[in-house]
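stage 2 :: seqdesign
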């Protein structure tokens, strides 16, 4: 029988015998610990030996209201006793109907139709295919390309990866991918000396206009992550870019796809990031926080105009032939409904604003750190950019893996911080307290101090 103090080691051995983990060089686990989590409590994760870790990244940005949330758990248990799954072609069920109705009410005006899928990458695939197919049905088969931003990330299936620009993910599979048209990101970190984030956004809109003038005739859509390019390094930009982009897409007759998978559901300070630009996209992709981090589910919302382009007699051949076995899964839809109910019943966004302000205050001293080039924040997302030279912003060589040092230190101090390269970021569940934020920042500061030491 395994002794309690050896439970982590035993589970890790069993895991590494058979499991291949995502976004991982498995060789790392010869010196990086595999942490077996056996339960969760609010913002905390507990391993098999009883060690506790404050989840500073919401378990890959999914968890909104804490692990093992009792409201969502009760809703799932109730649904599991009623209907666990049913084919979603020719059949429907109340949780999906109610969820679609609520999403249409919550999202920007004009988004009237909901297409369910089962993860964020799948949602992006749906939006890309639907945009292309719309133009094909309209007699514009020449529109086959997409415009994306430099530094963008939209997922790792082939279509989603095709409109991504993070070399770490894209380079290996480039021969298999479509080639996007890349527009320079409005990332404020890339602004010219003395330039405000809004001025950077304006300048980058000019570049987008130039691309559309040249390529609109062959372009289906522009796809962006509103306000924060997350996997690309938590790059942030001014909402005026969204406002201007909507006008450009209308002017040049291309679709606007908003990938709100990571930034939706209150992450940026508003329910959806697009609200801060006062825009409604043609397609909005949602996932991650949609179910509060409990089950995989995604949704693509679009307009009546797009829907109408597919609505025809069967023999016209205009139907949108895309499906997933678990499309509209009742359990996932029920979890999403309870997640939205928490937003209705509790002052979530108001509380988030207070927590975000506290996080900003605690991170402010790092702006003076000799190895910190930038501290940036958008709502409940904050990032600290570590560099070898502050004045020139010269980065640390990636092979030195300074961010990994922060991660490993965090584990010893009861904090889950998983940097993106040398960018230490914070994206905690909304149920953290100010004391929890203090703990995350204190541990991060300690880890940074260790990481930048030669």
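stage 2 :: out
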């Amino acid at each position: 029988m395994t002794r309690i103090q050896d439970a982590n080691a035993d589970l890790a051995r069993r895991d590494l015998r058979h499991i291949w983990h995502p976004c991982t060089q498995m060789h790392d686990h010869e010196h990086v610990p595999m942490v077996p989590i056996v339960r969760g409590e609010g913002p905390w994760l507990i391993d098999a030996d009883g060690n506790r870790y404050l989840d500073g990244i919401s378990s890959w940005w999914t968890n909104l209201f804490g692990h093992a949330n009792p409201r969502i758990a009760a809703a799932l248990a109730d649904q599991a006793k009623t209907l666990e799954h049913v084919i979603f072609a020719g059949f429907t069920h109340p949780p999906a109907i109610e969820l679609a109705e609520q999403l249409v009410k919550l999202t920007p005006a004009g988004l009237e139709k909901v297409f369910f899928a089962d993860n964020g990458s799948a949602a992006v695939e749906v939006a890309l295919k639907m945009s292309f197919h719309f133009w094909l049905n309209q007699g514009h088969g020449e529109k086959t390309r997409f415009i994306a931003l430099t530094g963008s990330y939209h997922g790792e299936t082939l279509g989603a990866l095709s409109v991504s620009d993070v070399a770490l993910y894209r380079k290996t599979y480039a021969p298999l991918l479509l080639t996007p048209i890349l527009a320079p990101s409005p990332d404020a970190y890339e602004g010219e000396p003395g330039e405000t984030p809004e001025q950077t956004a304006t300048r980058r809109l000019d570049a987008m206009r130039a691309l559309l003038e040249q390529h609109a005739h062959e372009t289906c859509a522009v796809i962006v992550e509103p306000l924060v390019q997350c996997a690309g390094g938590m790059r942030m930009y001014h909402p005026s870019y969204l406002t201007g982009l909507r006008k450009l897409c209308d002017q040049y007759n291309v679709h606007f796809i908003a990938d709100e998978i990571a930034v939706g559901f209150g992450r940026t300070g508003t329910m959806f990031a697009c609200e801060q630009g006062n825009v409604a996209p043609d397609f909005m992709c949602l996932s991650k926080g949609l179910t509060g981090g409990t089950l995989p589910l995604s949704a693509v919302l679009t307009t009546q105009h797009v829907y109408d382009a597919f609505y025809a007699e069967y023999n016209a051949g205009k139907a949108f032939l895309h499906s997933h076995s678990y499309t509209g899964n009742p359990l996932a839809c029920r979890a999403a409904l309870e997640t939205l109910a928490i937003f209705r019943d509790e002052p979530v966004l108001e509380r988030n604003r207070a927590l975000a302000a506290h996080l900003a205050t605690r991170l402010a001293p790092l702006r003076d750190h000799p190895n910190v080039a930038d501290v940036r924040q958008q709502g409940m997302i904050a990032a600290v950019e570590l560099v070898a030279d502050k004045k020139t912003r010269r980065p640390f060589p990636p092979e030195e893996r300074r961010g990994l040092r922060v991660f490993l230190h965090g584990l010893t101090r009861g904090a889950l911080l998983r940097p993106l390269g040398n960018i230490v970021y914070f994206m905690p569940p909304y149920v953290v307290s100010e004391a929890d934020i203090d703990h995350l920042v204190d541990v991060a500061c300690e880890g940074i101090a260790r990481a930048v030491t030669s």
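stage 3 :: structure notes
- Residues 73-345 form a domain with the Aspartate Aminotransferase; domain 2 fold (CATH 3.40.640.10).
- The chain has a mean pLDDT of 97.
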